[in-house]
Design brief:
By secondary structure, the chain is α/β, with parallel strands linked by helices. The protein contains 11 helices and 13 strands.
């Protein structure tokens, strides 16, 4: 029977760090806030559960106005650099070479470039000329999980194939110093830059098997999350109702998905959850009655990297695969949420 195995993962971050205290220092300098609203935003920083984030530029440069052309140039430069770095490390971990890969899936929502990232990687790293390429650009935070699901689909059709998933997100380039919208203020506290990769194969190798996958589009939620492209770049759209939307649906979604396997949430050992924010993680934990040890890697990624959009769930998967002792036969659930508003779920079994 055809299988889809995640053989290896890797992560990479840029060199510049922004700590929680630095965010508090610069926030009032950048945004003309005062009084109760500034105090409220400082409380958001303190309660974000984020210790630090990584950015492609020093914070002093990030807060300076730049043209859309310059932002696009920086996106292409750093996306290719980080994508190449993380792809190379992931292939090495999987004991594979670029020419072994049959499909490259690249994921990003924080910038645009044509030709897409996968074409640049193929030319720079020596992938075969007939490698298939699939860029996913508009699924937002859900795209990392969706890419793994599409990799599974490909491996079920071509069991001897090899798939490389690469997610690169440079959310710091979407920072809008001129916008006082609550969504922009929150995003400046929440999002970071980073890249993650996964190699998938149909071979019988150690790693989590992806046994099932499902997408769900929340009815009537088109305006809950996304980006508006304006003269100064991407402006984030982020409804304050997102955690409550997830809280209202997550139990039913997970119950129905796991029921196809004859399972209930209590039987899942590893929850590979997109760390979209403290409120989101708490909503999932509370609605599914999860003990913290089954979700701790998501909290660790949130603390050390912030929300990395599509790459976040792959960072969490990397934590589970490299820093946790997951016994053979253990069951996992990967879940991520993104624009649409949508949810992606994958059922995993460690072998």
């Amino acid at each position: 029977m055809a299988e889809a195995v995640i053989a290896a993962t890797a992560t990479a971050v840029p060199e510049f760090v922004v700590t929680r205290e630095e965010v508090k220092t610069y926030f009032g300098q950048v945004f003309p806030l005062e009084g109760a609203r500034l105090d409220a935003m400082m409380a958001v920083v303190d309660n974000s559960a984020i210790r630090q984030r990584f950015c492609i530029l020093p914070v002093e440069e990030l807060i300076q106005p730049r043209s859309l052309e310059r932002i696009s140039q920086q996106y292409q430069e750093h996306a290719i650099r980080l994508g190449r770095l993380v792809a190379g490390e992931c292939l090495e971990r999987a004991h594979m070479r670029p020419e072994d890969i049959d499909l490259i899936i690249t994921v990003s929502c924080t910038g645009v470039m044509i030709p897409s990232l996968d074409a640049h990687l193929a030319n720079a790293m020596g992938f075969r000329s007939n490698v298939r390429r699939l860029p996913i650009t508009e699924l937002g935070c859900a795209a990392g999980a969706a890419a793994v699901a599409r990799g599974r689909d490909f491996l079920l059709a071509f069991p001897r194939a090899k798939v490389l998933v690469v997610a690169v997100e440079l959310a710091s380039l979407t920072f809008q110093r001129g916008s006082l919208s609550q969504a922009n203020l929150i995003s400046s506290i929440l999002f970071g830059d980073g890249a993650a990769a996964a190699v998938m194969t149909g071979d019988d190798v150690p790693g989590p098997r992806v046994l099932d996958a499902e997408s769900f589009l929340f009815p009537g939620s088109i305006d809950a999350m996304g980006f508006d492209l304006k003269e100064t770049g991407f402006h984030i759209v982020l409804s304050r109702d997102v955690p409550d939307m997830i809280r209202g649906r997550i139990r039913h979604l997970v119950d129905c998905f796991l029921a196809r396997q004859g399972l209930v949430p209590e039987e899942i050992d590893a929850f590979v959850l997109h760390p979209g924010g403290r409120k989101l993680l708490l909503a999932v934990e509370e609605e599914l009655a999860l003990p913290r040890q089954r979700t701790q890697p998501s909290w660790d990624v949130l603390s050390e990297y912030g929300n990395l959009s599509s790459a976040s769930v792959l960072f969490v998967l990397h934590e589970w695969m490299t820093k946790r002792r997951v016994a053979a036969g253990s069951l996992g659930l990967m879940a991520a949420f993104g624009p649409g508003f949508s949810a992606e779920q994958l059922f995993l079994r460690w072998v």
